[in-house]
Design brief:
Layout lengths: L1 H12 L7 H12 L4 H9 L4 H41 L16 H14 L4 E2 L5 E3 H4 L32 E3 L4 H10 L4 E10 L11 E11 L4 H16 L5 E8 L2 E10 L16 E10 L1 H6 L8 E8 H9 L6 H4 L2 H4 L6
Bound molecules: phenylalanine (PHE).
């Protein structure tokens, strides 16, 4: 009877096995091809009396579906295990792994952090401010006369308010981080002891010795009775910590609009120890920073009583200090991201 044949096959379907793709195909031919066993049952089905067609038809369809899905299942299993064995033969588990490439810290960051570290040991904290600034904070409050040449297009990048329209504007890229000092002085009450690190911009042609942007660390200390001797001691301490205990400093009179008196500071050449070499052009000294006592006009512009408080300020270029520590002669190397240069600081 047809029904018994169908049930007999149904009970075997889930037990069908195949060891490889050829055996799967053989099963398909045996049951489902034109001459296959199940196809033959469909032919027999034509003879089934009408009153049994419904029941036997359902059974027959179930048999065909179950057989198809069992054969597909066998095929998928074989494909997965083939892939796995392909992967396991490609893998060489004894191979030493590729070394993990360590990143390096940028020399300017290394030096900036060292400067921050040295001054933090004598109570300075870090202050940050915007790189896009206004005239007031960069020049006005720092006692620059309205016609001072530093504001000139030669030095300062002004920002156009409307693209392409060069109207007079007081929005600019800061040309020194003294702008952070004016922000701190207007927002905090003395005593103030801050270090202002950051990027600054000047309109210079790019060469080995100049760049349109560079980095500064400026410092500001305001309290009662701060004297020039305090400035000198702080800078001497810094120089010895940074360049070694034998380092000497010398202060030469100079001019900045925001300090009075002002000075430029040299350190004894850390290459020849002060005897004179090509680096210090035979003088034994190299210049590293500008400094001075905060001009009373600046204190007053920032709302600090100059009769009660006094203070000192200093500012240095991080590139300059890095050049002295690591002998980087061409400023452009700092911003080109050439890994051959950067890798040299791997162990620092
Ligand atoms: N702002 C000065 C500069 O950019 C440096 C400086 C800071 C000088 C503080 C004196 C005091 O050149």
């Amino acid at each position: 009877m047809l029904k018994d044949k169908i049930n007999g096959l149904l009970s075997q379907v889930n037990e069908l096995k195949a060891a490889n793709a050829e055996e799967v195909e053989a099963l398909r031919i045996k049951y489902l091809s034109k001459k296959g066993e199940i196809t033959a049952l469909f032919n027999e089905f034509r003879e089934v009396p009408n009153d049994q067609k419904r029941e036997i038809g359902q059974l027959l369809n179930q048999l065909r579906q179950q057989t198809e899905s069992r054969i597909n299942e066998l095929r998928e299993k074989l494909e997965i295990s083939n892939q796995q064995s392909a992967i396991s033969t490609q893998l060489d588990l004894t191979r030493t792994p590729d070394p993990i490439a360590l990143g390096t810290r940028h020399p300017l960051s290394l030096v900036r952090e060292e400067i921050e570290d040295i001054f933090s040991r004598i109570g300075f904290t870090i202050a940050q401010g915007p790189e896009v600034e206004d005239d007031k904070h960069v020049y006005g409050m720092l006692n620059f006369a309205p016609e001072h040449p530093a504001r000139d297009m030669q030095d300062t990048f002004f920002i156009e308010k409307e693209p392409g329209v060069q109207k007079p504007t007081d929005v600019l890229l800061r040309s020194h981080t003294s702008s952070v000092q004016t922000r701190v002085m207007t927002s905090q009450k003395p005593p103030i002891r801050v270090l202002c690190p950051g990027r600054v911009y000047r309109n210079e042609a790019i060469s080995a010795r100049a760049h349109c942007f560079f980095h500064q660390v400026e410092g500001l200390y305001i309290d009662k009775n701060v004297s020039f001797a305090d400035l000198r001691e702080a800078l001497l301490y810094f120089s010895k910590e940074m360049f070694g205990p034998e380092t000497k400093i010398r202060l030469r009179p100079s001019y900045f609009p925001f300090t009075e008196p002002s000075a430029e500071m040299d350190i004894s050449c850390n290459i020849c120890g002060g005897v004179g070499c090509s680096f210090c052009k035979g003088t034994g000294w190299v210049e590293i920073l500008g400094c001075g006592m905060v001009d009373p006009n600046v204190l007053e512009a920032c709302g600090i009583d100059s009769k009660v408080y006094s203070g000192f300020a200093f500012g240095m270029g991080v590139e300059r200090i890095t050049n002295l520590k690591y002998r980087v002669k061409d400023l452009r190397l700092f911003s080109e991201n050439d890994v051959r240069f950067l890798r040299q600081f791997e162990s620092c």
